């Protein structure tokens, strides 16, 4: 997943098409695909959950 | 929880010490996990569920203390402000008391077996973390699953077992994923704690492993900051956040959280519960950790 995320960070134009559903990423399963689209759409909310471990 | 300390620990000084430790605890997420699983799977003995929850929270507090002592984290916590040997012994008492309280709710050997099994899994994950063993993403996820996922599984599985008398592998499976999601979130938050930055300590978190790939200049810059300056306080927080974003750290970690959540949701969908009950449980488990209280 590191390589895919890095590629999409470096190529926002591809990311935009993936999120819109105009481009697909080969070799990923359904969970991975959803995680990437959801993850890139909402990553700014990271760290806002209730802390669980100290 | 105070009640169990008073019953089992007559030694006045240790008793006071444990109450002080307990007072520092402001969250009871793990007992809620056990309690709501107990309810969702048809349990009706509220006293037993509350005792289970109390025992689990005592155990979790003991693990938190061990973790801080091992990592030399959280200087403001009461156990970090006293003699380390005294703190260690008090945590051991708390840990033992936790096991005693949890095991008091069931005579089923399988219940006790699961309790011990998750504790041992978590200890092994912690060992790998302390040793800095994970090198790959997969190894890191496995370490997180053992270290943190096991404790979430302990709560969810024992709550379910107390209600049904049976081990439910589906509950174990999604609870492990929930634990992974929560730990990654915690690791992200840890990037901003100056005194306990995991990266400064070269801990093998997903963030560290991603930076170590040196995909871009920002990753290299951040690694230099951590290695040379030793403190993130020296960079402005805005600039630091921007560097993390340019490096792809929050995006990567959030994608990994989503991956664990997808697996969690699939697990919940497999439960043999009414649709409404599944929806409620999923929403409760996710929202519980999704909102600031």
TrEMBL record, chain A:
<comment type="subunit">
    <text>Interacts directly with the sensor histidine kinase ComP and stimulates its activity.</text>
</comment>
<dbReference type="InterPro" id="IPR009233">
    <property type="entry name" value="Competence_ComX_Bacillus"/>
</dbReference>
<keyword id="KW-0964">Secreted</keyword>
<dbReference type="GO" id="GO:0005186">
    <property type="term" value="F:pheromone activity"/>
</dbReference>
<protein>
    <recommendedName>
        <fullName>ComX pheromone</fullName>
    </recommendedName>
</protein>
<keyword id="KW-0636">Prenylation</keyword>
<keyword id="KW-0449">Lipoprotein</keyword>
<keyword id="KW-0178">Competence</keyword>
<keyword id="KW-0588">Pheromone</keyword>
<dbReference type="GO" id="GO:0005576">
    <property type="term" value="C:extracellular region"/>
</dbReference>
<dbReference type="Pfam" id="PF05952">
    <property type="entry name" value="ComX"/>
</dbReference>
<dbReference type="GO" id="GO:0030420">
    <property type="term" value="P:establishment of competence for transformation"/>
</dbReference>
